[in-house]
Please model this.
Amino acid sequence: MLDHKLLEAEGILVLTPQAPLTSDDFQGIAAEVDPYIESKGNLQGILIEAESFPGWHDFGSFVSHVQFVRNHHRHVKKIAAVSDSEFLTIAPKIASHFVQAEVRHFAFGDREAAMTWLKE
Model:
């Protein structure tokens, strides 16, 4: 389960994984984000906040995640991963090779610093 909230005024999507990610999670996010991108052009940023990364429900969920990234990465300026999870600590380094957005890691608890960076 992936909780999400679009802060429309700031153009920031906040993602908070609560349980293994599913294909439905990415469909729900796309249903909310796609109209925003269509009307505004881009998201200023995405904030991923998770003390630990719960992984994916199954391989189909992983594929849905990859497809979501492929379809949306050109419309996101920055991505902030706020986590102490080993996976989310190294994920920005890996992701920077596949997405156009600037990606940065912040320690869990540094949400405010991450939001400030996303708004810059």
